[in-house]
Each structure stands twice: as structure tokens, then as C-alpha cells.
Amino acid sequence: MPVIPSPVDRIDLRYDVTGSGPALVLLHGSVLSRAIWRGLGYLAPLAAEHTVIRIDLRGHGRSGAPHDPEAYTQDTFVADLLAVLDAEGVGRAALLGYSLGARVALSTALRHPGRVRRLVSLGGSAAAQHGSVDSVFFPGVIDAVRDGGMEAFCAGQGLGPEVEGRRARATRTAFLAADPHAVAALLSATDATGAVPAELLAQCSVPALWLAGTDDHPRFEESRQAAALMPGAEFVPLPGRDHGGTLFSPDEVLAHVLPFLR
For residue 121, what are the β-bridge partners? Predict the structure, then answer.
């Protein structure tokens, strides 16, 4: 697995590369890792047509995990992403992100449109994020993680030790592997993230595909609004899916994503 230092603070950034074809970067959501793309069935069909770069965002997976909220700004995530592209000699790439990863992909497209061929946002938002972590996870999540660690994070989402089912057990295991101090810092930084001005979305020339579940509120409305503002964007609803269920199962998502990337 390649590892490079972040150009911002020199922490380790870990990623892997699979497949061949046009470059495609996959960006996971909060408290997850690059492993979700293989585990949920996205990697194989995407790597059949693309050189897929899966990044562990800072604070996640095997990348470095700072404990300062200032280490998790959108500017820092974008700098990390560009450093990975540069390390792989990639001038332009398509970006596909879920939740936090979708916001990082959007920020990159807005700041560096020449580096982004296409943008796919899954359960993403361009709105101000104040209060969003409580709605995505559960009320008081930041304090719960600070005080009770990742066990409290799991309990707040009904993923206690008694949980059954393969997906639920796997999710609990992944959450418990995270650094609670890094997670608290990340969620605090996310909660402080401001809105993307409408005029910036209207000026973005990168072709974009926004997908969100019809039961994912307010991300459904926020995704639809952002897509309406971007001149080259399309919005696709995913019937019956909430935020946590955005990615599963992959078939319906890939039925829209693969033709768009082609």
C-alpha cells in the first residue's frame, strides 16, 4: 500500500490503486475507510473500467489521525487528495465520494476544476454543516465520542455488543477501530463547515452527478438543490434509502454512475 506525507502537516496518507483506464478516486464517508468500496461491491465493477484510487482520508483507516479540529478543514482534505494524484502522476481524475467524501470531492472540483474530469456525489451536500453530524449520527454525538469513546458512538446508533447481522457486526467492528480523539476532532470540524456560495456552484464547469436517498433528510433536498445550481449537473433520487443506506445495494447506484463516468 503506497504511503505519502501530507503536504500540510506531514501525516501519513495511505491509499491503494486497482485496475486500469481513466483515473477514478473513491472517497469514503466519516468514520469509515477505503475498505467499504470493496466490501459493498463497488471496487470490482469500477476497476474493470478505471484505474481506481481508494484513499483513507486523514483520521480514518490506516492514514494519520490528528486530534486537532483544525487538521480537518476542507482545504486540508483537498491538499491531501491532490498530493495523492501528484504521487500517482495523475493530472485529471473523476471523483466519487460518499457523505464527507462527497464534500471533499465537491471542494476539489470548485477549487481545482482542471484536475477533476467528473464528479459523483453520493449523499452529499453543499449546505452549511452546523448540526449535520447530529442528524447523520445521533444528537450529542461529539460529546458522546469525547466522553465515552467509540463504544458510545456505536451504542448511539444501535450498534452495541449485542447487535446481530453481518453488516451490522462489520460496521461496529470498523467503528471500534477508529481513534475517538480523531473522530471527535473530525466531527467538530465538520460541524463548523460553512455553506458553498450559490454563485460558486453556478460557476462550476465540472460535469456532476448527485445521488441521494429519498429518506435521507436533509441530504436529499440539499443534493437536489446543489445539482439544480450547477450548470452541468444531474440529480438522481434513490428510492427508500436513508443516509446510512445510500451505498447499499450497489447495483442501482452503479447503473447511473458507470454510464456517467463513461
Answer: 97, 210
